[in-house]
Amino acid sequence: MISEKMKKKHIKIPQNIIKKMSKYPDFYKKVWTACFEIPAGKTLTYKQIAKKIGSPKAARAVGTALAKNPFAPIIPCHRVIRSDGKLGGYSACGGIKEKLKMIKYERETGTDASLD
Asked: Second label for 66, Cα 20 to 30 Å away, from 5, 24, 33, 57?
């Protein structure tokens, strides 16, 4: 079981990941940072992420940035879904089945699946 101190709202993106992020476009870093801020058990849409980072018409570009996320599940792109409620894509290990599994786990437990 994860202590209260380990909940995502109390931790920051690990420094080693921030350092590796520096070689990627600023847009990707904004998307990944916004994604990291989504609490366990919650989801946002690609469009909501686009709005959050100040690029409201860039939902498809958000999807591209998440598809190229080499830091999953620490940067939890599995928490981003389509506006119609469908899952969208998931390019990390396990694909869509793993994305669904992680979303269900987090909704049921409120615990970050990447920390278990």
From this structure: 5
Q: Please give the structure tokens belonging to residue 37.
A: 């801020």
What predicted TM-score, i.e. pTM, was given to this entire model?
A: 0.84
Cα-based distances in Å from 66 to 7, 31, 72, 109, 110:
22, 7, 9, 24, 22
Query: Residue 84 in contact with residue 18, Cβ under 8 Å?
Result: no
Q: What is the pLDDT of residues 30-73, one digit of tens each?
A: 999 999 999 999 999 999 999 999 999 999 999 999 999 999 88
- Answer whether the bond into residue 14 is a cis peptide, omega within 30°: no
Whether residue 4 has pLDDT greater than 80: no
The domains found in the chain, sorted by start residue, are 13-111 (1.10.10.10)
**What is the C-alpha to C-alpha distance for residues 80 and 70, in angstroms, rounded to an integer?**
15
Q: What is the rounded CA–CA span in Å between residue 107 and residue 110?
A: 6
What residues are labeled active site? Answer: 77
